[in-house]
Amino acid sequence: MKLTQADIYLSKCVRERANWICEYPGCGIISQHGRMTCGDRGMHQSHFIGRKYKATRYRPENSLCLCAKCHAEVEENPYLHNKIFIEIMGEGMAEMLTELKHQAYKPISGWKTFEKEAAKHYKKQLKEMRELRDHGEQGRIEFQGYQ
Ligand SMILES: [Zn+2]
Fold first, then answer.
1. Using CB atoms within 10 A of its CB, is residue 16 exposed (0-12), middle (13-18) or buried (19+)?
2. Does residue 24 lie within any of the structural domains?
3. Is residue 140 situated within a structural domain?
4. What's the gap in Å between 19 CA and the centre of ligand 1?
5. Spatial contact of 34 and 40, defined as CB atoms under 8 Å apart
6. Is residue 137 part of a domain?
7. What pLDDT digit, counting tens, does each position of 10-39 carry?
8. What domain range is 90 assigned to?
9. Which of 11, 31, 63, 113 has the smallest number of CB atoms closer than 10 Å to its CB?
10. How far is the CA of 53 from the centre of ligand 1 (A)?
């Protein structure tokens, strides 16, 4: 599936939110290099609901930051995948996203415009998060979803 600019910036935001630390319970691997370059460097964005569902694709709540090893592990095991997401984001959020997945949601402006605006939004959010990191913030930084 082709990545949009909105996917790319959201993915960076998801990883920055976690400070480039794998969110898999008990893992905690840190990508030092990723922090500096904001590149992939072994830290992935893992989607709860897959990218093909547009209604949930660009929501920050739908993703975790996982290291390559943990990402591969949850991709191979749907039961574990669900369990980990629910453990981290809560059952209510998992249910909400699952409901949203099947809705024929379409932004008024159309998807092309929405994705263009979402890319700009996440690019700006990323910049703000990185400024906080530059000022020494080490913990989780929440960011605003584009809707
Ligand atoms: Zn991990």
1. buried
2. yes
3. no
4. 13
5. yes
6. no
7. 999 999 999 999 999 999 888 765 555 445
8. 5-131
9. 113
10. 25
CB-based burial, 41-50: b 16+ in 10 Å, e otherwise: bbbbbbbbbe
Distance in Å, CA 24 to ligand 1 centroid = 5
The tokens of 58 are what? 């660009």
CA of 52 to the centre of ligand 1 (A): 24
DSSP-derived 3-state class of residue 14: helix
- Measure Cα distances from 7 to 11, 36, 127 in Å: 6, 20, 16
Whether 142 maps to a domain, the answer reads no
pTM of the model: 0.91
Query: pLDDT-based confidence at 143, cuts 50/70/90?
Result: very high
Q: Which of 104, 12, 120, 24 is nearest to 72 (CA)?
A: 24
**How many angstroms separate the alpha carbon of residue 71 from the centre of ligand 1?**
7
Count how many domains the chain has: 1
d(CA 27, CA 25): 6
Instruction: Quote the ligand 1 centre to 107 CA distance (angstroms).
Output: 35
Q: Please, which pLDDT band fits residue 54 given cuts at 50, 70 and 90? A: very high
Number of Cβ within 10 Å of residue 120's Cβ equals 14
